[in-house]
Write a structure and sequence with these properties.
This protein is of the alpha+beta class. It has one helix at residues 61-103; strands at residues 3-8, 14-20, 23-31, 37-43, 46-50. Strand 2 and strand 3 form a beta hairpin.
Length: 104
Amino acid sequence: MHGFGVYRFANGHRYEGAWHEGRRQGLGMYTFRNGETQSGHRQNGILDIPSTQNTTHLVSPIAVYHSKVLNVVQVDERVNRAVAAVNRVANADRVATFKAVNAS
């Protein structure tokens, strides 16, 4: 399994969240058969960053994942703009240096 999905275990437990190469990976929520939940971020199938949200008003892992994806896209756009600006300055410096060297 890869991507986002829901898996119902034979023992009645359920996992809803991100998967990578058959392992729970990323944001998700594990629901025990007694109704208790454990949500947060998983790395290689192990919960490494538990959610601190109130479990009586759970936010869908899909919504959490979607908001994080949108944030990553916005950060990527800002980084790309910054890199482009730095490249323009570096190219201008290279041209000025080349002209100074060749003028002598």
